[in-house]
Design brief:
By secondary structure, this protein is α/β, with parallel strands linked by helices. The chain has 2 domains: 282 residues, Aminopeptidase (3-Layer(aba) Sandwich); 123 residues, Alpha-Beta Plaits (2-Layer Sandwich). It is 34% helix and 22% strand. It contains 12 helices and 21 strands. It has a 6-stranded mixed beta sheet, with helices on both faces. Strands 13-15-11-16 form a 4-stranded antiparallel beta sheet, covered by helices on one side. Helix 1 packs across helix 12 and helix 2 packs parallel to helix 3. The radius of gyration is 23 Å and the shape is globular. The two termini are 21 Å apart. The structure holds ligand BES and manganese (II) ion (MN) (2 copies). Keywords: Hydrolase, Metal-binding, Protease. One of its GO terms (biological process) is proteolysis.
Length: 456
């Protein structure tokens, strides 16, 4: 522990400077205009892995953005940890709401503000630096493989192919990921599940062209109104999702599991205050923790149609659109839910419009084990670094590739995230506490130490 703290102290500024360099790349995977920057981020990541001491570092080409691979095999009889992370980020929009530019990392009040500060550059880079620390101090007790991808925020389609084609190279005993949140620094926690995802786009078509809303309005169905009604009908009065069959495969938690989840500290007043909302909302019969961690949901991510420019235009739009996502829990599958949604949405369309449903991407839910040696190692590492034992929680987000690691490689995952829900992931003014960054670099080597010891 002393060696770790000393190394971090002696290299404090450099550890931060390098993260800042990484954050300066606008590596937005969703928008092709950032292509050059995304590719440069992969090269930077590879260079830093190499500099930290990784062997066989490769920027592996795919049909999309490359996957950065690197490894350090110290002894084939020792356990192997596969570290996964992503160097791509979400689009920074809406830009005008950022206090400082998203790709010019700025420190305010001990926090780094930048797109990707927490999700996931700040978090995966802790692993690169913790690896460097173990190499420099001769304390690496396990084999390590790094796989850092550039398409997580757009569904990891090419990583799926890469995993299937590189089973031998990716052989490991556990996958370690820092891309999730903790309750707080005072109450550290480990996420033990991720939700799955079905993401699709719907289009509602009305007349064959935009119409004068005075000449035709009242006589021709407005697709925006129809879309709004169709979307509103997707939840019933108890906020259950009203798609037939939607809940058929949902595994209900036992009373004991529900009790354990609800015993985690959660202050509804603070929650509401932070978001400036008067009341929370959700499925009747479930707490906020359960609604986000253990229940499936349906959200409109975007909705548009007609005139949305400056001023007013009197128009009856010919078309309206929405992007809709559903978060899934065990044992729902994205394929079945996507199909149920599509059939339902087409069925409820009234005769005066046509609808089209286009699936985007999906991912399966996972629950990670809490009785494994790797989970215990994470528990011990956090307890040692934070002075408090971590609480298991269920995360509401999705990392679709985790279910695939299990299905294709047969490897379970430990989600050792150091973010906070208040870090504004995907929002303007995303941040990551400098304290969390250093704390992560401190905790990760302890994970390796305990994992090696417990694996003996
Ligand atoms: N790191 C997040 C997922 C996450 C955040 C899990 C917080 C738990 C707590 C990841 O980068 C992400 O945003 N995933 C997307 C899914 C992807 C297919 C676009 C998500 O959850 O929306
Ligand atoms: Mn992420
Ligand atoms: Mn994300």
């Amino acid at each position: 522990m002393q060696i770790i703290k000393q190394y971090i102290e002696e290299n404090k500024q450099r550890l931060l400077d390098e993260l800042f360099d990484l954050l300066r790349f606008p590596s937005v995977s969703a928008d092709p205009k950032y292509k050059e920057a995304v590719l440069n981020t992969a090269d930077y990541t590879a260079e830093k892995l190499r500099a930290a001491g990784a062997d066989n570092v490769e920027v592996c080409q795919t049909a999309g953005y490359p996957i950065v691979y690197g490894e350090k095999i110290i002894d084939s009889t020792k356990p192997t940890v596969l570290v996964y992370g992503h160097y791509d980020v979400q689009p920074p929009d809406p830009l005008e709401l950022w206090e400082t530019p998203p790709f010019e990392p700025t420190v305010r009040d001990g926090k780094i503000y930048a797109r990707g500060a927490c999700d996931d550059k700040g978090q995966f880079y802790m692993h690169v630096k913790a690896f460097e620390l173990m190499m420099q101090t001769n304390t690496l007790p396990c084999n390590i493989k790094f796989m850092i991808e550039g398409e997580e925020e757009v569904g990891s389609n090419n990583l799926g192919i890469f995993v299937k084609e590189n089973k031998e190279r990716l052989k490991a005993d556990v996958v370690l990921i820092s891309d999730t949140s903790m309750i707080s620094m005072e109450t550290p926690s480990l996420e033990t599940g991720l939700r799955g995802l079905s993401y699709l786009e719907v289009e509602v078509f009305g007349p064959n062209r935009d119409l004068h809303s005075g000449v035709y309005g009242g006589a021709v169905a407005n697709p925006a109104t129809i879309l709004a009604k169709m979307i509103a009908s997707l939840h019933d009065e108890n906020n259950h999702i009203a798609i037939p069959g939607f809940y058929d495969d949902v595994v209900e938690l036992t009373d004991e599991e529900r009790k354990a989840l609800n015993s985690a500290p959660y202050n509804e007043e603070e929650y509401k205050k932070d978001l400036d909302i008067a009341e929370v909302w959700g499925e009747a019969g479930y707490s906020t923790m359960e609604r986000t961690g253990t229940r499936p949901t349906l959200e409109v991510n975007g909705i548009w149609g007609g005139y949305i420019g400056e001023g007013a235009k009197t128009v009856l739009p010919s078309k309206a659109n929405a992007k809709i996502s559903m978060r899934l829990v065990p044992n729902q599958t994205s394929e079945k839910i996507t199909q149920l949604f599509t059939e339902h949405f087409i069925r409820i369309a009234p005769p005066y419009v046509k609808v089209k449903v286009t699936p985007h991407h999906g991912g399966e839910p996972v629950v990670t084990p809490t009785d494994s040696v790797a989970y215990q190692a994470a528990q011990k590492a956090i307890t040692e670094a934070f002075g408090v034992e971590p609480i298991p929680t269920r995360g509401g987000g999705s990392i679709p590739i985790v279910a695939l690691f299990e299905a294709e490689l047969g490897i379970k995952t430990v989600l050792m995230g150091f973010g906070l829900d208040s870090d504004a992931l995907h929002s303007p003014n995303e941040k990551y506490d400098i304290f969390n960054y250093y704390k992560g670099i401190e905790t990760i080597p302890l994970f390796y130490k305990h994992y090696a010891e417990l694996s003996k």
